């Protein structure tokens, strides 16, 4: 009997995979569209009133309506697929809303609004071609930059991006103003020198006015001008300067070159917003300077662990301190690239290394004191007793790795406060040496307390 005909396999479910239900196919198409906007949602760094927020919200809301309109025909598999698609879209809508209304994002906006108020008050001189700003304005802008630098992002991309955008604009304003302050109030060349000088002087006046316009644009306080128009105006100035005949006069050529360089600086500032959106400059994790700082910190942690766990620490004091001082030198060489966040990261790294050096210095002083037998004032002895306690507490603080809600943080803070009170109770009885020792001990206790705060404030670049 020939079984070749009867043993042929019949149709299997896998053969019907191409015949997917139209509703399932439609849901997959919608999910694909939703997935395409997810990176924009996760990286959204603006506010709820921004055009981009409304655009993304509109896209996602539309997709929710599309999902809701899919007919399930009472089938459980389609109902589950529709539910999953709706949940994913709703998750992105919620993420978008949270990005725009995050407390730290609103904190950045509040600080930025303070900077806007400062600019509105001080911008008038620039529109008339002047370059005079008050010291209060310069200090106010510096304070804004410092506060923005310390806003926590928790590693959240949208917050890091928002902080980068805001700092970039405020720092650009600071740089423009500093550049103006450094300049001489009078024009460099007399118009009698050559007919071309009058044209360069006229362009230079327009450049000074353009600075005011640019500052207003960067800070969002000028709704009448656009970046594109200002860019065209500045480019036109360069074209006019290039067309001038300077008759081979080097002093006029140099003067023209300086004005062109000023215009190019302003054009570069106009590109800041586009640059921030098209690059990952806000992600300092891959920044060369930050990588150097992290390398130093990694080595510092290795030295700290070795020191705190050594059976006989005094044998390591000299070598550890020498290497730590070398690490300080490496941090001094790190370029901050005019970036306040990199500057802050370097400052914190220096404090980390310097605190470990101070810990070794105190340990060495306490070791030397053990072998010295001499008469001393009771108050001086009391100060050294507190320093011994501070040394032990500092060792714990160096090992601490938590936040300000941890019980251990509260305990260490209380111990340091207790030592400060003990120092306050020491009566030097007019002994100058004791007064100086107590003053140094108080400063040390305060520095350890500040270091504990720095370790637990959860700041990141």
TrEMBL record:
Signal peptide annotation? none
Asked whether the keyword Chaperone is assigned, the reply is yes
Report the domain of life of the source organism: Eukaryota
Instruction: Give one Pfam family.
Output: BAG
**Per the record's keyword annotation, is Isomerase included, yes or no?**
no
Q: Which UniProt keywords apply?
A: Chaperone, Repeat
Where does the record place the region Disordered? 1-22
The segment(s) forming the BAG domain are: 23-100, 196-274, 289-364, 379-456
PANTHER family from the entry?
Answer: BAG FAMILY MOLECULAR CHAPERONE REGULATOR 5, BCL2-ASSOCIATED ATHANOGENE
Name of the molecule in the record? BAG family molecular chaperone regulator 5
Q: Which organism is it from?
A: Echinops telfairi
Its lineage opens with:
Eukaryota, Metazoa, Chordata, Craniata, Vertebrata
